[in-house]
Amino acid sequence: MQKKFGFGIIGCGAIGDIHAKSINNTDGAKLIAVSDINLEKAKIFGREYNVEYYQDYKKLLECKDIDVVSICLPSGMHMQSCVDAAEAGKNILCEKPLEVTLDKIDHINEVVRKNNVKLGVVFQKRFQELSRRVKEALEDEKLGNVISGSIYIKYYRSQEYYDSGSWRGTWKYDGGGCLMNQGIHDVDLLQWFLGPAKSVYAIIDTVAHKGIEVEDIAVAVIRFKNGAKGIIEASTSCYPGFPSLLQIYGTLGTITLRDDKITDWKFINPTEEDLNFSKQILEQKNVELEDIDRSNPIAVLKNRHKYQIEDMIRAINNNVVPEITGEEARKSVEIIQAIYKSSCIGEEVTLPLN
Fold first, then answer.
1. pTM to 2 decimals?
2. Is the domain of 138 the same as that of 101?
3. Which of 17, 33, 97, 286 is most open to solvent, judged by the fewest CB atoms within 10 Å of its CB?
4. Sequence-ordered alpha helix ranges (H) in the chain
5. What is the b/e burial string over 117-143, where b = at least 16 CB atoms within 10 angstroms of the residue's CB?
6. Do residues 240 and 163 both lie within one domain?
């Protein structure tokens, strides 16, 4: 019989609920306990899933049946809980971003290495089948020399969304706005596809929401070390919210991802497989993307966390690192931090950051 790995969840908010459902829907995983600083919230959550609940997450870390801890707290609170989990000998699955500053991320990674535990960070778009197909095409140089890669994230978040938690829209706990919170998934995907960034030049602003410290619109020009250039455009002010768009152009072709669907797969020298795949895409052109409320941050997740829970179980069973390590998760945060710095000083900023 396959061993079931015990999971604990720190943070009983909406994203914690996604983790709980995904854990229970994954073979080899079992939810053991949850915790939240709000005891009533932890109690309701624990009773819903018929597991132990705690107000102090350190009590959860004492549970011998827990092998993996899901960190589902506000972004700027990840470091201490990750450090405590690692020092308790627990493997960690942390929500994005791993933390909101590079210093905090580096400290987490150091403690994880020192305690010889696994750390996976949630960037579930990398696990989509079509994302992997794009990655494979780039590795096979089907596009030739990549000349441009851009992302456009036109989401919508209401004023009520930001007002729903005192931590939302703050530098300390959210770490940023439409880039660090929402757009980071696509920033991660872009750098995964095109490789390290060389520099950024950016403008950010707050234009449509009151009482928040962070940006709700951002535009950046990005240069990659491979010579490609691109645009990163993100907002949470575009009603009613639109599918994310990722475009990659090379000397031999074009690939476009709209949400999790490939809408362009065009090459100067296509194989028969490419032609058949392009035909499938053409047949789907008139089929609308799923009717998703893109103002709802939970609706767009589509239960993809299951893939990363499976990846964590595979990593433990085979004694390898998860696909998205703390070092990998650092890359998108560094790009976003460079964008914030560029907007602040009004100059192009080179990477890596000092």
1. 0.95
2. no
3. 286
4. 14-24, 39-49, 57-61, 78-87, 102-115, 129-139, 159-163, 184-194, 272-283, 305-318, 326-345
5. bbbbbbbbbbbbeebeebeebbeeebb
6. yes
User: Token pair for residue 74?
Assistant: 């506000």
Query: Based on the domain organization, do 35 and 118 belong to the same domain?
Result: yes
Give the C-alpha separation, 351 to 178, whole Å.
21
Contacts of 65 (CB under 8 A, 6+ apart): 6, 32
pLDDT for 300: 52
pLDDT of residue 260: 87
Least confident of 71-80, 151-160, 204-213, 303-312: 303-312
Q: In 10 A of CB 101, how many CB atoms?
A: 15
Residues 6+ apart with CB under 8 A from 325: 109, 119, 120, 121
Q: What is the mean pLDDT of the chain?
A: 95
pLDDT tens digit sequence for 243-272 = 999 999 999 999 999 998 999 999 999 999
**What's the CA gap between 159 and 294, in Å, rounded?**
15
